[in-house]
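Before drawing any conclusions, I needed to go through one protein's amino acid sequence and its backbone structure tokens, quoted below without any editing.
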Amino acid sequence: MSTVRVGQKAPRFELKTIEGQAYSLPEALAHGPMLAAFFKVECPTCQYTFPFVERLYQQFRAQGVQICGISQDDARDSQRFAKEYGLTFPVLIDAHPYRISRAYGLEVVPTLFLIGADGRVELVSDGFAKADLLEIQQRLARTFAVTPPPLFQPRENVPNFKPG
């Protein structure tokens, strides 16, 4: 598990997007809760997880959901990843020495942090965890008072867990 635990304040950050724009946690939280999803480009579990994170973004985009991917790779490789997996939410760069990843205490990727508008961590998910993604969807649905479509389609053979 990650060092930052549920109920703790999320470490503040300001990073650049793959387009070079500034993105900060405090500014994102001014619009409501946010999902910070840490990843590495070559991580197979990240490659599997991020299309589902994109689905969450699409389901709540109209309500102004804040989701960001935080890459431990360079901008060029992260841009390729975003394009390959159809990511439309902001992708940020936390390059070596991974200052923000270290502040969050990451041990594996992907690691997802659902952060409430008050800046406190509400949920932490390491690896791919189907139940955690469903919980994130339910919490966002309650926050935005909407009923999203299913996150996982019946034709998809989605495992309950894939380690990161």
About this structure: The first strand starts at residue 14 and ends at 17. The chain has five helices and nine strands. Strands lie at 14-17, 22-24, 34-39, 66-71, 91-93, 111-115, 121-126, 128-129, 161-162.
